[in-house]
Design goal:
alpha+beta; Glutaredoxin; four-stranded mixed sheet; 4 strands; Arsenate_reductase-like; Arsenate reductase family protein; Thioredoxin-like_sf
């Protein structure tokens, strides 16, 4: 299992604590330092079953600077959103937990993290 985290994020710290408390084997990716490529973001989106605008933190200053609130959310716009996430990783919702079965969840709740741990 892999977890994408920002160590300054309380939700990320909570998810990591849960994984550690449960003894779940995992690797930690500090995605602000080890920035995922556009291809990796597309792969995670596929695993999540979500669109890039669904994992974009639109309240971040970078999002306001880019004007993402005005961007359309159509399949043709997907690459623009993915490119923004790759160029500005702070916009990626966190934490993202990639389960052992290859699926993924946005682990903002204990239930979501437990769901990922149960996927084998």
């Amino acid at each position: 299992m892999e977890i994408w985290v920002n160590p300054r994020c309380s939700k990320c710290r909570t998810a990591l604590s849960l994984l550690e408390a449960e003894g779940a084997a995992h690797t930690v990716r500090r995605y602000l330092e080890d920035v995922p490529s556009a291809e990796e973001i597309r792969a995670v989106l596929e695993r999540l079953g979500l669109e890039p605008w669904e994992i974009t933190r639109a309240q971040e200053p970078e999002a306001r600077e880019l004007g993402v609130a005005g961007w359309t959310k159509e399949p043709a716009d997907r690459d623009r959103w993915v490119a923004a996430l790759a160029a500005h990783p702070r916009l990626i919702q966190r934490p993202i937990v990639i389960a052992d079965d290859g699926t993924a969840v946005v682990g903002r709740s204990e239930a979501a993290v437990r769901d990922a741990m149960a996927r084998r």
